[in-house]
Amino acid sequence: MTTLDFPLDDARRLVDIALDEDLGPDALDVTSTSTIPADQAATGHVVAREAGVLAGAPVIALVLEGVATRTGGIPPSLEVRIADGTRLVPGDVIAVLDGPAQQVLMAERTLLNVMSRLSGVATHTRRWADALEGTGCTVLDTRKTTPALRALEKYAVRAGGGTNKRMGLFDVAMVKDNHVLAAGGVGAAYTAIRARYPDITVEVEVETTEQALEALEAGSRFLMCDNMSTDLLRATVAAARAWAGERGEGVEIEATGGLTLDVAAEYGATGIDYMSVGALTHSSPIIDLALDLA
């Protein structure tokens, strides 16, 4: 089973917080401990209730371990049958848990909450990746993530066939209109970043072909075309690539702003390299997963 570079430390932190929320300071499930003998065994199946793309299966083991640690119990055995990134159909058995029934039920909601969320992101991303297939354009995520879930949500994007852009404000410089205004121009903003961080990637946001050429003259080789029509975007791509080609250089071009699945292929065919979509992480509905006792 591929892990797609699963962010294990981030997942552990999330599971700790989630279990603290669900089990409280005394690690209690008052219903299960009252109605189920401590030595009663159970088999639980984590199943898909709807079609989608799986993400987050490694979380199951972390939740089981976390519950056992908190309660002093024995964690159920675990068999994960489906790898992250796999397309699901209703009824697919993702994993099988065997062990103390109390432990299984204490873990149920936490593992389902995380996996349903991540699988929703992966499923949404897969729709964009499928829509762009054959265009040469790759779908990117953004920083519009759920606080404290960024590493996991970006992992889910990868599981769905997308690509991560920047992880935060620290790894890519993105010059937007406020930076241009504060610095006194595109050239001044680019020069200031390059002087302080000579090895960092610098992307410049543009809204017109003229601004794109200005950014190239300033030194940027990564353009983010914001809220352009397909005609304007196609013209900007052609002008930018011609400018760079005359100098024997390359340029990467990204489109963003107001994009929907209905027009993804049309925009992807304009010659852009990337399409960034904040909705991958801020507006993906969950995928319905369940844990059924056999």
According to CATH, the homologous superfamily of the largest domain is Aldolase class I
Overall shape: it is elongated
At the third CATH level, what is the topology name of the largest domain? TIM Barrel
Alpha carbon gyration radius: 23 Å
Q: Show unreliable segments.
A: none
| Share in β-strands | 15-25%
The CATH class name of the largest domain reads Alpha Beta
Q: What percent of residues adopt helix (DSSP H or I)?
A: 40-55%
What's the short version?
This protein has helices at 8-23, 30-35, 59-71, 101-132, 150-159, 177-183, 186-196, 209-218, 230-246, 264-268, 279-282, and strands at 41-48, 52-53, 77-80, 87-88, 93-100, 138-140, 172-175, 201-206, 222-226, 252-256, 274-276, 289-293. The protein is of the alpha/beta class and 294 residues long.
Explain what the structure shows.
With 294 residues, the chain is α/β, with parallel strands linked by helices. The protein folds into two domains: 8-123 and 285-293, Quinolinate phosphoribosyl transferase, N-terminal domain (Aldehyde Oxidoreductase, domain 3, Alpha-Beta Complex), CATH 3.90.1170.20; 131-282, TIM Barrel (Alpha-Beta Barrel), CATH 3.20.20. 45% of the residues lie in helices and 19% in strands. The protein contains eleven helices and twelve strands. The strands form three sheets. The chain has a six-stranded parallel beta sheet with strand order 6-11-10-9-8-7. A four-stranded antiparallel beta sheet has the order 3-5-1-12, covered by helices on one side. A two-stranded antiparallel ribbon has the order 2-4. Strand 8 (201-206), helix 8 (209-218) and strand 9 form a beta-alpha-beta unit. Helix 1 packs across helix 3. The longest helix has 32 residues, at 101-132. The radius of gyration is 23 Å and the shape is elongated. The two termini are 25 Å apart. The mean pLDDT is 96. Its EC number is 2.4.2.19. Residues 121-292 form the Quinolinate phosphoribosyl transferase C-terminal domain. Involved in the catabolism of quinolinic acid (QA). InterPro entries: Aldolase_TIM, NadC, NadC/ModD, Nicotinate_pribotase-like_C, Quinolinate_PRibosylTase_N_sf, Quinolinate_PRibosylTrfase_C, Quinolinate_PRibosylTrfase_N. It catalyses: nicotinate beta-D-ribonucleotide + CO2 + diphosphate = quinolinate + 5-phospho-alpha-D-ribose 1-diphosphate + 2 H(+).
